[in-house]
């Protein structure tokens, strides 16, 4: 479940980079949240 959320957040961030009307800070916050989820899962020893 968490990896699905992380993937969706990364995709939204990537789309935000290439869109003309990106929300700037919000997109970067989504990227940070996705990375935090991935790091926490790696620390817990679960596979990605």
TrEMBL record:
Domain of life (superkingdom): Bacteria
InterPro entries, sorted: Lmo0937-like
Keyword Membrane: yes
Keyword hit for Transmembrane: yes
Membrane spanning stretches: 6-39
Keywords for this protein: Membrane, Transmembrane, Transmembrane helix
Pfam family, one: DUF5670
Protein name: Lmo0937 family membrane protein
Organism of origin: Thalassotalea insulae
